């Protein structure tokens, strides 16, 4: 019974950081990448990041 509880805890501890990284990445690439303000430095940084990752944006 202890083994099952330990494996569940390990599985959960690996899931949360991975899920958080995916959410943060999508926020940066999709959320900030589509901002349209001409003087928006966040948009420019995300836009350059999309190009460097070979992610189509035009």
UniProtKB/TrEMBL annotation:
<keyword id="KW-0472">Membrane</keyword>
<feature type="transmembrane region" description="Helical">
    <location>
        <begin position="15"/>
        <end position="35"/>
    </location>
</feature>
<keyword id="KW-1133">Transmembrane helix</keyword>
<keyword id="KW-0812">Transmembrane</keyword>
<dbReference type="InterPro" id="IPR012667">
    <property type="entry name" value="CbtB_put"/>
</dbReference>
<protein>
    <submittedName>
        <fullName>CbtB-domain containing protein</fullName>
    </submittedName>
</protein>
<dbReference type="Pfam" id="PF09489">
    <property type="entry name" value="CbtB"/>
</dbReference>
